[in-house]
Amino acid sequence: MLWNTVAQTVELGWDFYVPVLIFVALIAMAVPVWAAIGSSAILMLLMSGDLPLSLVGERLFTGIDAFALTAIPLFILTGDVLVRTGLSRKFLDVAEALTCFTKGGFGSATVLVCGMFAAISGSDAAGAAAVGRMTIARLVEAGYPRPYACALVAAGACTGILIPPSIAYIIIGLVLGISASTLFLAALIPGLCILLSILITNLVVNRIYSYEGGGNLTFMEWLSNLGRSLKSGWYAFIVPGIIFYGIFSGRLTPTEAGALAVVVTISMGFILRTLSFADFPAMLLSSAKVNGVILPIIAFSAPLAEALAIMGVPQGFVTSVTGLTNEPWILILLMIGILIAAGCVMETTPNIVILAPILQPLAENIGMNEIQFCIMMITALGVGFITPPLGLNLFVVSGITGESILKIAARAVPFVLCMFVVVLFIAYVPAVSTTLLPEIYK
């Protein structure tokens, strides 16, 4: 009913429906997303005749001609270097020392180290792979069922796109013309809320099923353990310290912070003798593969966004939806439903470049702050990382352990519910996203 109303309002024809059907068919055939988007965009422009095809090449270039995008490969490379130098294990040691006084301490440490890794790499899949290799076997030894251990890592790794610096916030900032530094600042509290909700959920589940014991240390024993772990691994926190201080103090742009983080991490690897020049080819190739998936999607999304704008799809969507109801709380629920459903079947980057220009006018129409909208959108899409059928993090941890994706997904249900509650909190309480921002953004 809703889409029929949109179609009538915008007067959509075959020049819209045929490219969309082809896009769906290509995705179903596992064609790379960038190729599906590019083919659909070119066909849409060719059939509609609204934009000369000679301009497509120009739009492909201008779509990625942005200084902010340079930060993406830098943060990805920093995460790779962090793993190869062994610094990520220092994070785990400190996280374990912090949480060893609680029942379910190593499970909580796993979630914390996911958050620490997220504060550097900005990638959820990289976090799931790195943390999963370090922790899943130990979680099973501690008493957790393997499917639940996998689900815990997959859920914790969702913070990769939710805690700044995040690749997703760089992309949505580019799409909607918002400073990445501003979005990083706004995302800090929501990202920590997601992390805290996963921690609490794990503690509750662990208390119900008694997977893991622990929590028998005295305060002095806990303090001693923490002191030893910090003494042996304090230098690992130099990298996230540089990123956070540089970006949030305004002294560095995200790109500059990423470049400095790469240099410092590599230097530390050579000083500690955990990195050699022989590691560079594999390290650079790994980072290039991840970056090579993201940037073509952004490039081909530019002509697609222009074609949709010329056809009036975003404006027609707003007119049609507000014609059905004027209740802001219902419209917010509708947007959240669309985002979570989209996150279940497609990766974050294409969802951002396709849906952000369509949904942002609707959010603006009901008075939602553009910063709040971005935070809500990314957080809602983050739920899709542990939700079938795509559930990227589910596939990553399944690939590491050989565990059934369906079994992992079943154990991830409590984490999906807790993240959904946080999404609602972000959507209906603007202060969660705007408290740390200057007055001009509130």
Automatic annotation (TrEMBL):
Domain TRAP C4-dicarboxylate transport system permease DctM subunit: from-to ranges: 21-431
Function according to Swiss-Prot or TrEMBL: Part of the tripartite ATP-independent periplasmic (TRAP) transport system.
Transmembrane segments: 20-46, 66-87, 107-131, 152-178, 184-205, 234-252, 258-278, 290-310, 330-359, 371-392, 412-437
Native species: Octadecabacter dasysiphoniae
Pfam families xref list: DctM
Signal peptide bounds: none
InterPro entries found in the cross-reference section: DctM, TRAP_DctM
Protein's cellular compartments: Cell inner membrane
Family: Belongs to the TRAP transporter large permease family.
Protein topology in the membrane: Multi-pass membrane protein
Keywords associated with the record: Cell inner membrane, Cell membrane, Membrane, Transmembrane, Transmembrane helix, Transport
Protein name: TRAP transporter large permease protein
Source organism, top-level taxon: Bacteria
Quaternary structure and interacting proteins, as annotated: The complex comprises the extracytoplasmic solute receptor protein and the two transmembrane proteins.
PANTHER family associated with the record: C4-DICARBOXYLATE TRAP TRANSPORTER LARGE PERMEASE PROTEIN DCTM, SIALIC ACID TRAP TRANSPORTER PERMEASE PROTEIN SIAT-RELATED
